[in-house]
Specification:
It is a single chain. By secondary structure, this protein is α/β, with parallel strands linked by helices. The protein has one domain: Spore Coat Polysaccharide Biosynthesis Protein SpsA, Chain A, CATH 3.90.550.10. The chain is 36% helix and 24% strand. It contains nine helices and twelve strands. The strands form two sheets. Strands 1, 2, 3, 4, 5, 6, 7, 10, 11 and 12 form a ten-stranded mixed beta sheet that branches. A two-stranded antiparallel sheet has the order 8-9. Helix 6 packs parallel to helix 7. The radius of gyration is 18 Å and the shape is globular. The termini are far apart. About 3% of the residues have low confidence.
């Protein structure tokens, strides 16, 4: 069984499209869990009226991504977990293709499909990588899909927007802060999880035949790396969280020797990000 966990916060429109894409999957042995973070847009009423198969977790407050995802994982029954943003829609063979990849190697704990934008031309992610500046790098981000990433291969990790995970791996890497570190709330939580998994010897695999579509920033204003810009659309309090979580991720996972080897790249990115933060504080 695959347990699909969706965190929702006031995005009834996107959630409905996401759930409809799950109903259209060729692989049917699944359960769907929606953790709703105190939505006020009628999301809960819609779920009860049109999606009775969904297991609903109704939170009284907005717990952000990590804690709500952990709630879903805790009550899940599946051997595999798909952590899915409500702004993602899956092609009908997504689950089948992801499972095929998992079953090809018992050491694979994470699978990434080809995540495209809604125009079906621009790449959103073909796997998550760790930059030398210790920033999360979505491979192919913003590029036109010209077939460059059509080869199945091992990668570093998977995007948190659509992360297919082996539950055995999640149980092994869970620490006192949860599967997803609840201190992060949102931003860098996927890189942290993938980094911890790599350190435990788990592998991540990219399958280009598992295709999904992502409304970038649909669930929360997120960083836009196009044109070299640094998170121009994140609110001030979330910018602070974004910066702190990068440091938290390094402190948790980096070795001293690797940190020192990459220090010039880290410092150069720090200069850029703090200058941008200082300038944007006036607007």
């Amino acid at each position: 069984m695959v347990s699909i966990i969706i965190v929702n916060y006031n995005r009834k429109d996107l959630l409905r499209q996401c759930l409809d894409s799950l109903r259209g999957q060729s692989f049917r042995d699944m359960e769907i869990i929606v953790a709703d973070n105190a939505s006020k847009d009628g999301s809960v009423d819609m779920l009860r009226a049109y999606y009775p198969e969904v297991k609903l977790i109704r939170n009284a407050d907005n717990l952000l991504f990590c804690k709500a995802q952990n709630q879903g994982i805790d009550i899940s029954s599946g051997d595999f977990i798909l952590c899915l943003n409500s702004d993602v829609m899956l092609e009908k063979e997504y689950l089948k293709q992801a499972l095929n990849s998992m079953n090809s190697d018992a050491g694979i704990g994470m699978v990434s499909g080809k995540l495209l934008r809604m125009d079906r031309k621009i790449i959103d992610s073909t796997g998550l990588f760790l930059g030398r500046n210790r920033k999360a790098v979505e491979r192919g981000y913003g590029e036109i899909d010209k077939g460059l990433y059509n080869k199945p291969e091992y990668v570093f990790g998977v995007s948190g927007a659509c992360a297919f995970l082996r539950k055995t791996m999640l149980k092994e890497i869970k620490d006192k802060y949860g599967y997803f570190d609840e201190r992060f709330g949102m931003y860098y939580e996927d890189l942290d999880l993938c980094w911890r998994a790599n350190k435990k010897g788990w592998k991540a695999y990219y399958n280009p035949n598992a295709v999904a579509y992502h409304v970038r920033g649909g669930t929360a204003a997120g960083p836009d790396y196009s044109g070299g810009r640094i998170f121009p659309y994140i609110k001030r309090d979330l910018k602070r969280r974004y910066i702190i979580n990068r440091y938290r991720c390094m402190i948790k996972n980096d070795s001293i020797i690797n940190f020192l080897m990459n220090l010039p790249f880290i410092l150069w990115y720090d200069i850029k990000i703090w200058c941008y933060f200082a300038i944007s504080s006036f607007f």
